[in-house]
Amino acid sequence: MNVHDYLYYVILPVLILSVLLIFIRFLKGPSLSDRVVSLDLLITTGIGIIAVYSIITDQPTFLDIALILALIAFLGTVAFAFFIEKIKK
User: Fold this and answer.
1) Which stretches are annotated as coiled coil (predicted)?
2) For residues 15 and 30, what is the distance between their CA atoms, to the nearest angstrom?
3) Distance between alpha carbon 72 and the CA centroid of its chain, in Å?
């Protein structure tokens, strides 16, 4: 079993299953905080999928896209934390 077989048959199914479970948590989340955390986790899992796709297709430019998506997700999380802090005061 080489690296590409491992990525196809092990890593991608695990990532896809995790996306489905996280999306269910996103829909059922009882509070806004739960939904924001699950959205952040969805973006992080999407970054993992983009990284695996970049390795499989041997296109390193997709890693730049993953990096930009990670920066946007981080800024969104910081903005939400700032919003929660303003609400509590």
Assistant:
1) none
2) 24
3) 11
Nearest in space to 15 (alpha carbons), one of 55, 39, 45: 45
- Euclidean distance between CA atoms 27 and 52, whole angstroms: 26
Check residue 9 and report its DSSP letter.
I
> Can you tell me whether residue 89 is helix, strand or coil?
coil
User: Distances from the Cα of 10 to the Cαs of 5, 38, 45, 71, in angstroms?
Assistant: 8, 23, 15, 27
Q: How do residues 39-69 score in pLDDT, each as one tens digit?
A: 999 999 999 999 999 999 999 999 999 999 9
Confidence of residue 32 (pLDDT cuts 50, 70, 90): confident
